Structures are given as structure tokens and as C-alpha cells.
Amino acid sequence: MIVCIAEKPSVGKDIAKVLGATTAHDGYMEGNGYQVTWTFGHLCALLDPNDYNEQWKSWNMSSLPMIPNRFGIKVVDDKGVQKQFKIIQSLFLQADEIINCGDAGQEGELIQRWVLQKTGAKCPVKRLWISSLTEDAIREGFQKLKDQSEYQRLYEAGLMRSIGDWLLGMNATRAYTLRYKNNRSKDDRAPLSVGRVQTPTLALIVNRQQEIDHFVPRTYWEIKTDYRGVTFNALVKKEDEKESVGIDPIQSTEEGTKLVEQLRQWPFTVTKVEKKKGAEFAPRLFDLTSLQVECNRKYSYSADKTLNLIQSLYEKHVTTYPRVDTTFLSDDIYPKVPGILKGIEAHFPQVGRLRELMRQEQEKTGKQQKLPKSKKVFDNSKVTDHHAIIPTGQPPVALTEEEKKVYDMVALRFIAAFYPECKTSTTTIWGCVADEQNRTKEDGDGMLFKTSGKQILVPGWREVFERRVAGDEKPENENENEDENKEQEEEKILPEFKEKESGPHNPSLLEKQTTPPKPYTEATLLRAMETAGKLVEDEELRDALKENGIGRPSTRAEIIKKLFQRKYIVSKGKSLYPTPVAVELIRIIHTPILKSAELTGQWEKKLRMIERGEMKAKDFLDELKQLTQEVVYEVKTSKVGMLCPVCHQGTVIKGRTAYGCSRWREGCSYREPFAVDKQNAH
Fold first, then answer.
1. Cβ partners under 8 Å of residue 207, min gap 6
2. The pTM is what?
3. Per-residue pLDDT averaged across 354-366, rounded?
4. From 356's CA, which of 73, 271, 426, 580 has a CA 20 to 30 Å away?
5. Residue 232: φ, ψ to 5°
6. Number of CB atoms found within 10 A of residue 349's CB
7. Is the pLDDT score of 173 beyond 70?
């Protein structure tokens, strides 16, 4: 008998239907030589501290660090889980072959491997690896089964991730909670939860809020002028570039007013007109993070809600595997594209319009037109385990309103990828306001101005998003059109200008103030997690930073959700704000890797190296153990953040040579020179 094990009952039943296992039993399906069973998430987990050592059951600083000699697993203590595990075990122990049909990713591999290990199964194990749950995809997957050993590195990476979270989470949470319990009120004695990904993510939010709180606005001035109904901006030298063109930054209202009055005396002269034609390719296909970002921006959906919706669409067979971090497709998908488009054509008139555009091009050129195969969409080198999220071609029926909104976003991106490029014309006008002698010089004594506008010549893929599908209403939030308004400003059509033309103009002075950074939203936080805290707009550069991102696409939503659950962050509208306990937690943590997105991102990179066979899991585990020891040592020896032992009101701070009280200005006398004995600190 061949036993297949899926990650969810619904997925197991889909597989059973394809295999002809139609007889239902308690916890599995059977038929045609197959038995198909399932887990429901994690049936097994790493052992708790007290499972290794009874002394580790109580929270005591002297028992830290807790580092087991060998990590073990157990079946989760839940009646339903225990019952299903026994069913699986009985099937496995009688099986001739087992097929792991878990989700095709790191976590899915870990979930099923633990069950396989705990049951004690000894028969051969194969792996099913598919990107959608359509009947065709399942059949194709069973024709290409691979030996489980080919996914050993994927399992090792998942195992190291889990062990790393256990070591740092268990030890750091206990250490910080015990060390600083006396600083907190009796009503607020919940554990100070510290996590490998959670804490650096929280630090991003706390640090951003501190930047906002300590921001001091700076006044600056801009000079603009109106010539022939078009606003031109004065060119100003960049402060960090001595050789840049333009005037020095204006230092006062008086200086700016004087300049404006001087400019009124001279005409405006066009010195240069530049027109460039360009082309814009359609937006990239979605990976999970970009889909979560767009759903938050457009519909205010949380990252967790978007993940649940796209997971549901996957299980309803209308979209492909969602937990992906690439926006590209592999070459083998290209032959399937016509069938996918045909399958969704009844729901999207844009597909019919695409055919019409291809027909028009064929009539014009006399050549048979095929769907384009761009390197911006199809690139095997950018696809590892899974490709970007796309429709499967199954008709999108029986979807909820929220599912339909997410599905439409995925489908429209996919359709747009095969439309012609959007052709544009960008016009840039330079002008000079100066006396007659300097009027035509770009670097003369006068003032230089510039404006630009972009015109859409051929909309191309933009047509896809202009033609709304049924049920796709306007954005639900009043700020949703910010990007559209900005885009419209950039796409203004300028009148015709000629070089050396000249005429009157109307200059003006605008007094402005610098603004503080904006609080994170879930969308911008997801991007920051993806790029280890770096603000990156360029998609190609963002791709390069993904390997150093913190967390995985599949886990980032859960991390943000936990921050809410632990009352570390709150939301007001779309904006995220840290709570006082979160600010205090980040303040007292001094081990850099615990709160540095960049350092934690480097750790994530090592996990990916394990997947690729570029690093041994054992070496990474040794690093984890060493880091855990250092974290505990840091907490045990540091006095920073502790309640002052003298006044019992302030907290201990660190100076150059000694610890002191934060209330030293109020007269607290506490001062203690550094004296650390590292050998006795553990």
C-alpha cells in the first residue's frame, strides 16, 4: 500500500480524488492502492525545556543558558492531534511506500519530516512537489516524484530555523523577564517576549517612532516661477555636492524675497528643450510580500488576512502556491499561458482585448503573433522552489468578495504582463532668468529653472487596469489615490516650447518645513522586513537585498500578528505605533543581533546557504549556541535598565567608566565602576 500524507484535510481529499482513493475512513481516504491521510499544521514540535531537564521547568536565572545536547521532538499535547497522529502512525508502519505531499516549502517539509520521524516509519519515502492544486498539476506532480533525500538540505534549513527560534526565544525571553521584573508594576508582569525575528521587527517600529518624536523641523525656502502657465522650479545646489548646478540654498525669508524681486526685473528665457521617448513594462507579477503590500495599500488588509485569503484561493485551485519570494516564472510555464488566459477570459474582458491587439499587430506586420516571452517575466535563474503567484486558469467561482478582490489583483497583473509596453514621451524644459549678458548660459549669474512632464502615447498594459472588472470598486480609503495623484502630476502634458524664446514670468517664494518620517504601515513594514530595514524603491535592488531580509515571506504576517497579540504595537488607521512596554523592551536590549534587522538578515542568509548546500547545518548550530551564551552573559552582567539601587526611582545607565542613575541631575548619588568577571557570569 502507498500512503500519501498532505498538510491539510482539504488538500488530502483533493489528492485522493485524483488518485481514485474515494473510500472515506476516520482520518484518511483509501482506494486504488492508495491511502491518503493528512496533518493539520504542526502535529509535532520541539520539546519544552522541562522535557530535557526538570530544573528548566522553573524560570531561574541560574539555569540559563538552556542548551540541550541534542534536540528532540514530541507530538503536540492536544486530543485531536494525538488521535490523528495515531492514525497516521498505524498507516505508516504498514506502508510499502510513503509520499510526502506536504506544502512545497521549508515549513511544509519540516512539518512532515517530524511526523515521519516520530512515527518510526522505515519504508522508502518520495516527495510530491507541486505549485497548484488543480487536477492536472497533481497528476503531473505524481509523474515526477523525487526521492526524499533530494530535499534534505531544505529540511535542515527549516530545522535550524526552528532550533534557532527555540534557543534565542526561550533563553532571551526568560533572561530579560527575570532581569527586569523589579522595574515593572505588579499589574504588568507578563513575560518580555524576545524573538529572533520578532524583536528586530519591533525595533524597526520603535526606532521609527523615536525618529518622529525627536524630529526637529527645519525651515527651507523654494523659488518657483510661472511662465506661460507652467510652473518651473529653481535649481538649488545639493548640500553634499559642491559641483552641482544651481543657487546656494536660501537661508532666510529676507534673502528669498530679495531674490524674487531681482528676478522680476528680468525675462524668462528657455535655454534647452529635451524630448525623450520611452517605454514602461507592466508591473511585476506578485510574490507574497508584494501582494500583501498592495492589499494593505489598496484595501487596508493586514498581512495575515492577505495570506489567509491567497491561501484560500490556492486551496480553491484558482491561484498557484502563495508562499513565494520571486516575481518571475520558469520557462516551462510559457506553453501553459494561452490555456490559463482562455480559462479566465469569461471573467476578464482584458483577455479579449489582448487578442484584438495581437490581431491588429499581425495585420500591420503580416507576421504570426505569439504571446511575448519577456525576460522580465520568464527567468529560470530567478526561480528556485516556486514561481510567482498567478492564476491557474480554473474559473474563479464561489469566491467571497474579499477573495475576489485579491484574485482580481493577481489575475490583472498576469494579464498585463502579456500586453504591449506603455509608450511615453518625456519632455524636460530648462530656463534661465538673468540679465541680457547671462540669459543663454546654463551656468551664468542668473537663476536656472526646470520643469518636466510625461505624456502617455500608447497606453499598452495600462489599459488592463483602466478597464475595471465587475465588482472592483474604487479604493476604500481616502488616501488610496495618493500614488495615482502623484502619477498624474508627473504625466502632465506641456505646451510646445522653443529654445531661446523669452517672455515675462511671475516668480514666487515658498516657505516650507521638513517633515518627520511617517510611521510604518503594514505595507511599509513588510518592505522593511524584506530588505533588512533599508528603504529601497528600485525593484532590482530590492531583489538583491531579499536574501538578507528578516523572516520568510510565509512567516512575516505571523510575526506582525504576534506583535499585536502581545500588545507591543497598536494601529491607528493604517499606521503602526509601539506601546510603552515595547519601547522599554527595545531600550533595555543591548545585544545587537537581537534588535538589528541587518544582523538578523545576515542570519537569514545563512539559512538560505544551508538550503543551497553552501553551509553545513552543524556549523550554523554551533553559531546559534555561541550566540545564545553571549546573549545570556550580556543580560546577566549588564546593569543598564535596572532599577537604581539607591533612589529606586531612576534606572541604571552606562557611562564611559561607570554605571550611574538616570536621575543624577536630580541628585541621585549612585555610581559604580565597571567590574565584570566573565568567567563567573554564566
1. 586
2. 0.85
3. 87
4. 426
5. -110, 140
6. 12
7. yes
